[in-house]
């Protein structure tokens, strides 16, 4: 993992990967790298939390391992699972070759070998470090899964009952994100550096649009950023994020339009009530 000299160096490396981080996010990223601490990013959907992890991995030149959280996620999807078909084939092969000379205990011991273990994201991150592990949308997972993560966050280690404790030779950079659809427990937050990722200013958002869409004119990027900022002032069910602003600019560029209008609201808003509200207002 590169040894960045300062938060400014982290910001420059992220910019080289196409991600424009503000001063606070660059500081959080620098401290996470220097102190080997996980970073917990919270904010509205579409503000660039997931993209930060991808850009950080690209800037550092390491692998990005992503674990998408969802309700019902457990150890078999997050940590490991046993390759049952291969275990059965191995058992039959050994029984045939041994002609009954091995005891049941000896046969069973051979089944729980590392070669029969299917590594899921958490175990892959431990074994392949240095890398960036993205635990995306932790607020979608159950409370029990948060408790399951604590060993990884605090000690960069996981436990497989049949094999014992596996510790990363070098702590992976762990980025945990949340859209705040529910409150995440303090035990998880205490093990992380915290940063709230807010919506950018119109000026910065225009810069982001230009970086992600070099073919879009500077004028159109400014118009889209300003219009997106005005939409966020309304009482919308789902305010648009940076991702939607980029999509909007791409759509308008494809249409050859000079400015955003209500006819393309379906690109930036995804709730019918929000579209009706904007059309009834005078923000566009």
Any chance you could write out the topology, listing elements then pairs?
Elements: H1 7-16, H2 23-35, E1 39-42, H3 49-60, E2 63-68, H4 75-78, E3 80-82, H5 84-98, H6 104-111, E4 117-119, H7 121-128, E5 131-136, H8 143-155, E6 157-160, E7 164-167, E8 173-178, H9 186-190, E9 193-196, H10 202-212, H11 218-232, H12 242-255, H13 265-268, H14 272-280
Parallel strand pairs: 1-8, 1-9, 2-5, 5-8
Antiparallel strand pairs: 3-4, 6-7
Helix pairs in contact: 1-2, 1-3, 5-6, 10-11, 10-12, 11-12
Organism: Dactylosporangium roseum
Pfam families: AAA_5
Domain AAA+ ATPase: 35-212
Question: Can you give a write-up of this model?
Answer:
This protein is of the alpha/beta class and 284 residues long. The chain has helices spanning 7-16, 23-35, 49-60, 75-78, 84-98, 104-111, 121-128, 143-155, 186-190, 202-212, 218-232, 242-255, 265-268, 272-280, and strands at residues 39-42, 63-68, 80-82, 117-119, 131-136, 157-160, 164-167, 173-178, 193-196. The strands form three sheets. The chain has a five-stranded parallel β-sheet, sandwiched between helices. Strand 6 and strand 7 form a beta hairpin. Helix 1 crosses helix 3, helix 5 runs antiparallel to helix 6 (104-111) and helix 10 (202-212) packs across helix 12. The longest helix has 15 residues, at 84-98.
């Amino acid at each position: 993992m590169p040894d960045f000299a300062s938060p400014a160096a982290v910001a420059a490396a992220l910019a080289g990967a196409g991600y424009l981080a503000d001063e606070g996010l660059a500081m959080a990223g620098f401290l996470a790298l220097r102190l080997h601490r996980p970073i917990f990013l919270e904010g509205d959907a579409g503000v660039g939390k997931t993209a930060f992890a991808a850009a950080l991995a690209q800037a550092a030149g390491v692998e990005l391992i992503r674990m998408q959280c969802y309700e019902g996620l457990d150890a078999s999807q997050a940590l490991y699972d046993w390759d049952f078909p291969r275990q059965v084939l191995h058992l039959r092969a050994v029984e045939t070759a041994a002609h009954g000379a091995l005891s049941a205990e000896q046969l069973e011991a051979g089944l729980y070998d590392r070669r029969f273990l299917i590594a899921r994201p958490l175990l892959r991150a431990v074994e392949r470090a240095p890398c960036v592990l993205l635990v995306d949308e932790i607020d979608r997972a159950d409370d029990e899964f948060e408790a399951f993560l604590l060993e990884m966050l605090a000690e960069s280690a996981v436990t497989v009952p049949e094999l014992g404790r596996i510790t990363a030779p070098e702590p992976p950079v762990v980025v945990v994100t949340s859209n705040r659809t529910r409150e995440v427990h303090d035990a998880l937050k205490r093990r992380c550096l915290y940063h709230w990722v807010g919506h950018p200013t119109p000026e910065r958002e225009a810069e982001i649009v230009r970086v992600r869409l070099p073919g879009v004119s500077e004028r159109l990027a400014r118009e889209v950023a300003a219009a997106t900022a005005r939409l966020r002032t309304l009482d919308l069910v789902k305010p648009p994020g940076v991702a939607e602003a980029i999509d909007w600019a791409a759509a308008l560029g494809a249409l050859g339009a000079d400015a955003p209008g209500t006819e393309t609201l379906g690109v930036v808003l995804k709730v019918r009530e929000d579209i009706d509200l904007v059309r009834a207002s005078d923000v566009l």
